[in-house]
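Review box. Two proteins, two foldings.
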Amino acid sequence: MKAFLKAFVYAAEGIAAAVKTQRNFRIHITAAVYVTGFSLFYELTKTEYALLAVVFALVMSCEAVNTAIEAAVDLCSPEYSKTAKLAKDAAAGAVLIAAIFSIIVGIILFGDIEVIKSIFEYYGRNIPALAGLVLSAVLAAVFIIYPSKRKEQK
């Protein structure tokens, strides 16, 4: 049982490392948070929310696997290699495919122009909510940009 629980600790450490070191992972987290927040303006079904959760998980999982592959390739092949480049590019391509399909799902679920107009109207007449949105955008930018400026200790 102890080994089983340790596996969760190691997985959490991997997620934390991805958050700390990978700007794109932080972008995906931020996008998921905003999409979830704006989804409250829509009347999504449980199935549609489940689809969103699967899309979020797919993109972030692909990003984590991409990070792992890049790290392993860098460790095994520190010098340039066409094979190493192929492995890294294919892993990055997997993230891109997942991200493109998540955008398609987003367009399908959130493409209702009337709801989009109502969101703009809501924030246009609700100054405290608009201020909160702007503040959250600043905090999101700090979350995305700041950690990537720090050097990781080896």
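Next protein.
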Amino acid sequence: MFKEFREFAMRGNVVDMAVGIIIGAAFGKIVDSLVRDVIMPPIGLLLGKVDFSNLFLVLKEGKTAGPYLSVEVAQKAGAVTFNYGAFINTVITFVIVAFAVFLLIRAINNLKRKEQEKPAAPATPEDVLLLREIRDALKK
């Protein structure tokens, strides 16, 4: 059974899939940091020093009454919060990842299209002789 599992796990497509998942997870972290640390701070500054990750509504007060300065403080107090700022960050992250995947697929499709458009290699004299031999053999 171990031998069968090893054969399954070492197939090319399984290994390729594992590598893709690992790289995808790392890429997701990079994009998340790009959104959280690079894109959102200037947008928040333009909108009046708003930190999107701390945009929330209190649905139910916690043990300690608000106002709460951050989502973390509200949740530590036991408040139930609607964290729409975190959702905005997640949507922006998704759009960036989806756009990056689109650009990757577009580049791959362009390469495939160029490969298909290449003209066939011209026949060599050896090819012509071989084709004549085949034609002559078929006539017999």
